[in-house]
């Protein structure tokens, strides 16, 4: 069975080797047909402490690494707040 892969934004990097990533998705409410935004906050293992707040990252499902950490970083951070060279 393939592991889940999500893309999200780092919202906290205060812990050592761990970042908190917000993964958002849009879906249509089954009764009211309104588009609803749902956000999951996931703890992600970041071995080299390379991600900072505001970075877009890709994460993959993994075995339990701690009480709440079940995800690992697979794609290095893409700096969204940097890169404006003008």
Q: Main attributes?
A:
86 residues, mainly beta, five-stranded mixed barrel, globular
Task: Give a description of the structure.
The protein contains no helices and five strands. By secondary structure, it is mostly beta strands. It has a five-stranded mixed barrel with strand order 1-2-3-5-4. It is globular and about 45 Å long. The termini are far apart.
Distance between the termini: 46 Å
Rg result: 15 Å
Strand order of the largest sheet: 1-2-3-5-4
Mean pLDDT, rounded to whole units? Answer: 92
What is the H/E order? EEEEE
* Structural class designation: mainly beta
Strand content: over 45%
**Portion in helices:** under 10%
Low-confidence stretches: none
Q: Report on the biggest sheet.
A: 5 strands, mixed, barrel
Shape: globular
Number of strands: 5
How many individual helices?
A: 0
Family: Belongs to the universal ribosomal protein uS17 family.
Keywords: Ribonucleoprotein, Ribosomal protein, RNA-binding, rRNA-binding
Protein name: Small ribosomal subunit protein uS17
Subunit structure: Part of the 30S ribosomal subunit.
Fold topology:
Layout: E1 5-12, E2 18-28, E3 35-45, E4 56-61, E5 69-78
Parallel strand pairs: 3-5
Antiparallel strand pairs: 1-2, 1-4, 2-3, 4-5
Can you summarize this structure?
This protein is mainly beta. It is 0% helix and 53% strand.
């Amino acid at each position: 069975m393939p592991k889940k892969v999500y893309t999200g934004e780092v919202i906290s990097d205060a812990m050592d080797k761990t970042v908190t990533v917000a993964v958002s998705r849009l879906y249509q409410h089954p009764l009211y047909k309104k588009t609803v935004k749902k956000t999951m906050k996931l703890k992600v293992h970041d071995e080299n402490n390379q991600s900072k707040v505001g970075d877009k990252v890709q994460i993959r499902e993994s075995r339990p690494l701690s009480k709440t950490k079940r995800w690992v970083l697979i794609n290095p951070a893409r700096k969204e707040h940097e890169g404006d060279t003008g």
